[in-house]
Design a protein that fits this description.
With 141 residues, the chain is of the alpha/beta class. The protein has a single domain, classed as 3-Layer(bba) Sandwich (D-tyrosyl-trna(Tyr) Deacylase, Chain: A). The chain has three helices and five strands; from the N terminus they run ββααβαββ. A five-stranded mixed beta sheet has the order 4-3-2-1-5.
């Protein structure tokens, strides 16, 4: 699993003009990509990492500050544009594999005590955020 994690001061995701997920204040906006070899165990590992990674103010984590997370699925994180002018998506898991694993990340975060909002899998989403820093990291498990 691959995640682009951005420290934000607020973020939201909309589908067809309707806000389907929103966090306010300090937190993390997380774009999650799934590949073919990913498992529920990797989803749990990613959730633990997101909950405990110390990238918020004063080197705190979401668990330290009870900061919210907005989790959005994004298959394009496994795009490959090294050859030609068009990316290929061969490394991205198909929806029937990826969707339950993204849901597992969200469920595991909630089990840990996190406040989590999410996008709508497979939908055309518009993500708005205020990147605080700016601060962006790539996590892979």
């Amino acid at each position: 699993m691959r995640a682009v994690v951005q420290r934000v001061s607020g973020a939201s995701v909309s589908v067809d003009g309707e806000v389907v997920g929103k966090i306010e204040g300090e937190g993390l906006c997380v774009l999650v990509g799934v590949t073919h070899q990913d498992t529920p165990e990797k989803a749990a590992q990613l959730a633990r990492k997101l909950w405990s990674v110390r990238i918020l103010r004063d080197e705190k984590s979401c668990s330290d500050l009870d900061a919210p997370l907005l989790v959005v699925s994004q298959f394009t994180l496994y795009g490959d544009a090294r050859k030609g002018r068009r990316p290929t998506w061969n490394a991205a898991a198909p929806g029937e594999v990826a969707e339950p694993l993204v849901d597992e990340v969200v469920a595991r975060l909630r089990e840990l005590g996190a406040r989590v909002e999410s996008g709508r899998f497979g939908a055309s989403m518009q993500v708005s955020l205020t990147n605080d820093g700016p601060f962006t990291v790539l996590l892979e498990v």
